[in-house]
Specification:
The complex is a heterodimer of chains A (about 260) and B (about 70). With about 260 residues, chain A is of the alpha/beta class. Chain A is about 35% helix and about 20% strand. In chain A, helix 2 (about 40-50) links the parallel strand 2 and strand 3 (about 55). In chain A, helix 3 (about 65-80) runs parallel beside helix 4. With about 70 residues, chain B is mostly helical. Chain B is about 65% helix and about 0% strand. Chain B is built from 5 helices and no strands. In chain B, helix 1 packs across helix 2. Chain B is globular, with a radius of gyration of 13 Å. The relative contact order of chain B is 0.15. The chains are: A alpha/beta (about 260), B mainly alpha (about 70). Chains A and B meet through helix 2 and helix 3 of A and helix 1, helix 2 and helix 5 of B.
């Protein structure tokens, strides 16, 4: 194993309060802390915890294709690891959910002979389940990135919950500060024939600061394109109703278990 | 830019449920005991995420995409 290592951690959704003790320990002991978070409170806290902290925000610029930015992030992380340092890469949310650069950095670091791990963290769907009172085990839950869902015409089960991440980025491949709902009619075209135009869906944005409530907007599918979306919004489509059990399958299962 | 005092106060609210509960019950009483400026106190009173986000200039790019 080469000298130099990488641990990838997440800072959760709410500022500072959702970081695991394990992640804090790695943040503090790193020789080099690289980070990208979405609020200034967490940013400052990270710099207090570890003076080596360096934000990689300079890899972003308006109009730059995200693909280029993600490649550069991975390169910058790997460059630090190759100097033989213990490197910690911290991002908001879960570092491996809607965050391919973390997975890619771990894969490449391991491929080059370095120790590399990723720790789990609180992601936006974890916050959604808590705030909307949804237990994904009751009806089941499907999750897709919104653009992927539309472009790939994903098949989905309307009797399970449906979570679409990054609604505000639907169809947008470049970094920008303004977000558009121009792609939402296409999403409605896919969902309305299955759920009905009047099916109520929920636009959700988790609270970042402890004094704030989460943003929760209920709207009929047909009205979705008229709603202002933000970059952090997730769409939750509740199930049409419970799935119907198949008695034959239930009987086969019972027979296998001797019941 | 975000002031040090406001950053510290928000961090304390995140990590101290007793302080958060006290703030929710009596925001003016808690704010009076802080060293926050009047501007910062006004930000805290808004308790609206979108407002707070606009009022706290973030140094980060709010990347949003699959980072």
């Amino acid at each position: 194993m080469k000298k130099g290592s990488l641990v990838v951690v997440g800072t959760g959704i709410r500022a500072v309060g959702q970081v695991s003790q394990e992640a804090v320990a790695h943040i503090q002991r790193a020789d080099k802390l690289l980070y990208l978070v979405s609020d200034p409170v967490t940013s400052r806290w990270l710099r207090d915890l570890n003076p080596s902290a360096e934000s990689l925000e300079s890899s972003y610029s308006v109009g730059r294709p995200r693909r280029e930015t993600y490649d550069e992030l991975v390169e910058r992380i790997l460059a630090a690891v190759r100097t033989g340092q213990r490197v910690c890469w911290a991002t908001y949310g879960h570092p491996g959910v809607c965050a391919n650069s973390g997975h890619e950095a771990v894969r490449r670091a391991r491929g080059e002979g370095y120790r590399a791990t990723m720790l789990p963290a609180v992601s936006c769907d974890d916050a959604l389940f808590a705030d909307l009172g949804v237990d994904p085990a009751v009806d089941g839950c499907q999750t897709y990135e919104a653009t992927n869902f539309v472009v790939c015409r994903r098949r989905f089960d309307p009797h399970a919950g449906l979570v679409l991440w990054q609604l505000g980025l639907l169809g947008q491949s470049t970094y920008r500060r303004q977000f558009s709902n121009a792609g939402l009619p296409l999403l409605v075209d896919l969902l309305a024939p299955v759920y009905g135009a009047m099916h109520r869906v929920t636009l959700y944005e988790a609270a970042i600061y402890p004094v704030c409530a989460p943003v929760v907007r209920h709207v009929e599918l047909a009205r979705l394109p008229q709603v202002e979306v933000t970059w952090a919004m997730t769409l939750f489509v509740p199930p049409l109703g419970p799935a119907v059990p198949d008695p034959a399958m239930a009987a086969r299962l019972a027979a296998l278990l001797g019941e | 830019m975000l002031s040090d005092n406001l950053a510290r106060f928000l961090r304390n609210l995140s990590l101290d449920p007793s302080l958060l509960e006290a703030f929710e019950q009596d925001p003016e009483g808690i704010l009076a005991d802080t060293e926050l400026s009047e501007d910062d106190k006004r930000r805290m009173r808004s308790a609206d995420q979108e407002q707070l986000r606009r009022q706290l200039p973030t140094p980060e790019p709010t990347p949003g995409g699959i980072i």
